[in-house]
Each structure stands twice: as structure tokens, then as C-alpha cells.
Design goal:
With about 140 residues, the protein is of the alpha/beta class. Helix content is about 55%, strand content about 15%. The protein has a 4-stranded parallel β-sheet with strand order 2-1-3-4, with helices on both faces. The longest helix has 18 residues. The N and C termini lie far apart (about 60 Å).
Length: about 140
């Protein structure tokens, strides 16, 4: 199985983990490593230890980060140079994580999961609007 590690600034990973637990329950091979100000000095070592441990227990590791170019992303990328079968996905959102959790299996490959994460992450960002009362009047005028 490919293990998942979720990290990001402040309470980002804690909040998403809470939402995942609510929607999908506790997940195997899923860990969070928050990047919090009071523990910033320890962050690189903590993240490396979590990734190394996860990789020793799983076929690969997919690290989800909040922001391209931020400390969690940069540290994850540095670690990826030393760890085989590891990938980093930036711009993580809840739809992405839920979909990957629900479809991840023992036979899933790291490349498949990365491709799916990027696509589902993009598809999960949309805009919608409900029609307003004024829109109905405009439609009636158009019919005349």
C-alpha cells in the first residue's frame, strides 16, 4: 500500500484530518505532520522521521502539502531526494484526499495516485450560483 502523509502550515493538516475522520473514519497508513510556529525548528527532522518510517512500512509514500514553495513543500522535496518511491503533491484539498482515500488499494501505484490526486484536486475546485428572483423575470421577458 502507498502511505499518505499530510502536512502544511498551522492547523491545515489537523483540520483536514478531522474532516477526513468525520467523512471516512480513521485511515491506515495515514499520518499528519503539522508545520507550526512553535515547533518550526524541529519540523524538518519530524517530517523526515515520519516519511522514513512510513516508507519502511509501506510500498511508497505520497506527501500532500498545502502550498507550492512553502516550507512543508520545500522540506518534502528535499527529503524526496533521499527516499525512493516517494512523491509530493501541492495544493491539497479535501475532495482530493477523500477520493484518494476511498480508492486507494494495496495494488495502487504511486504514479496512479499522483495522477488521480492532481485531477481530482482540480475537479474539486468549482463555482456555482443559484438563480436569483430577478433571473426568473429576465427569462420571462426573453420568451416574449
Amino acid at each position: 500500500m502507498i502511505g499518505f502523509i499530510l502536512t502544511g502550515h498551522g492547523h491545515f493538516s489537523n483540520g483536514l484530518k478531522s474532516a477526513i475522520d468525520m467523512v471516512a473514519g480513521e485511515q491506515p497508513a495515514f499520518e499528519i505532520v503539522p508545520f507550526e510556529g512553535d515547533k518550526a525548528g524541529e519540523y524538518a527532522d519530524t517530517l523526515r522521521a515520519a516519511i522514513t518510517k512510513m516508507r519502511s512500512e509501506q510500498d511508497g509514500v505520497l506527501v500532500f502539502v498545502d502550498l507550492l514553495g512553502g516550507t512543508p513543500f520545500n522540506q518534502s522535496m528535499l527529503i524526496s531526494a533521499d527516499v525512493d518511491n516517494m512523491a509530493v503533491v501541492a495544493g491539497t484539498n479535501l475532495p482530493m484526499l477523500i477520493e484518494l482515500i476511498m480508492t486507494r488499494s494495496d495494488s495502487s501505484t504511486l504514479d496512479e495516485l499522483v495522477e488521480k490526486a492532481v485531477q481530482v484536486g482540480k475537479d474539486g475546485v468549482i463555482t456555482m450560483a443559484l438563480p436569483t428572483a430577478g433571473d426568473d423575470e429576465d427569462d420571462e421577458d426573453d420568451e416574449m
